[in-house]
Design brief:
Elements (H helix, E strand, L loop, with lengths): L12 E5 L42 E4 L3 H11 L5 E4 L5 H6 L3 E5 L19
Antiparallel strand pairs: 1-4, 2-3
Length: 124
């Protein structure tokens, strides 16, 4: 499967976390995906809002990449916004009291995750 929106090399990559004491990032295999290669995970600015939540907070996000998709968001969500994000109301207290730290990286040593597009949700 090809990218629906081709990856672009940004000026910076982000890693968001709740731990202010991180002084270095070391590649590791995620506990939730033991078959993955060791890596330091970072996200481009365009997709960074996906991580503006406490780590385990369930969330969903949709955004428009063109005029047709903006029209669909307007019709489906009654908004002129180009991005809609939602989380369960039960998480509001945690979200209000969470401090997220934005660690920034030079993108040069990073490469796009080839499975990123394959893992997006497809309509039934």
């Amino acid at each position: 499967m090809g990218w629906t929106v081709a990856p672009e090399v940004p000026e910076v990559l982000h890693h968001f976390g709740e731990d202010p004491s991180i002084t270095s990032f070391v590649p590791h295999v995620p506990r939730t995906n033991p078959g993955a290669a060791a890596a330091v995970w970072a996200i481009d600015p365009r997709r960074a809002p996906l991580y503006w939540f406490p780590r385990h907070c369930p969330r969903v996000a949709v955004w428009a990449n063109d005029d047709e998709q903006r029209a669909q968001l307007r019709d489906e969500f009654a908004t002129e916004a180009s991005r809609v994000q939602a989380a369960p109301l039960a998480w509001i207290d945690t979200m209000q009291h969470c401090t997220l730290f934005d660690y920034r990286f030079d993108p040069a040593p990073f490469s796009p995750w080839p499975d990123a597009e394959a893992r997006r949700c497809e309509p039934p």
